[in-house]
Amino acid sequence: MRKLILLFITFSILSSCDDGDIITVEFDFEETFLACGELVFYKIKSDPFESLSLKIKNPGLTLESLIALDANGNLVNDQEIEVLIGTGGNQFNYRTYNNDPIGLFCNDIPPSSVQITQDLSSIAGKAYIKVTLIEDDLDGIPAEMEDENLDGDFNPATNPTDTDGDGIPDYLDEDDDGDNVLTKIELGDAADPLTNPRDTDGDGVPDYLDTDDDNDGVLTINEENQSQDQNPANDYTDNTIADYLNPNVSTTVMATAYRVHSINQVFVITVRIKDIQFPNITQTDFNMGKLNDSRLNKTRTVTPAF
Fold first, then answer.
1. Which residue ranges have biased composition labelled Polar residues (predicted)?
2. The pTM is what?
């Protein structure tokens, strides 16, 4: 917090344009923005040296609160959040500099080589923050191809297909057939695994949807003959081919659990600004774009009940 206070005190003591002329400004920034502190969204550019920043004080928000999930794994903030600019300490600023402003934000001590040459703060306006959660199993098959689309809406999240009935829909299930071998492994190394996935026993059912890949009468999940670690893919009897793909090996070792499933999460945060009022600037609306921050990429794990 100290570094943010220092930053904004520094900005506040610098004067803005005072000649009353209309300023022609094109907010031509990149389509992404950055974040720091509790909570500042900002974007900078180097040609010319400019920045746009949104400081949010009310309601009190943090990046973690924006992407918080409830007990059911749903976003707590699933509706667009409105922030009133110019009230409660909320600020939207346009600034210009004498040097590249990279490193200016979110540092305890701003670089001395950068001076603000113009500092304009909107006296009104609204910011709208939208958070979206995108989940995927990253199994090599696009989510839209992992749904039978029985409801006709082309959305795998509604009435989803769950091939193995483990409670995890196929588009989030990294083991679609529930045989403890990951789908991305069972696709094989075909030129196009989506149109020509591996089908070891040639029965017309691709391995990633086949519970007995080698058709030896023993379910793949029960072919852990060397190590019972919920992964038949590392069990070899003849050292050339895994037992679950070898029709000549049909030893049964009953499985007792499903493997832990990992689900990739990407939180998408977008910000748009409406009805801003900068002194001497005519533009009133601006789309900040999408937040670029590594903290928006997470993984959750689920172990299906056996």
1. 222-235
2. 0.85
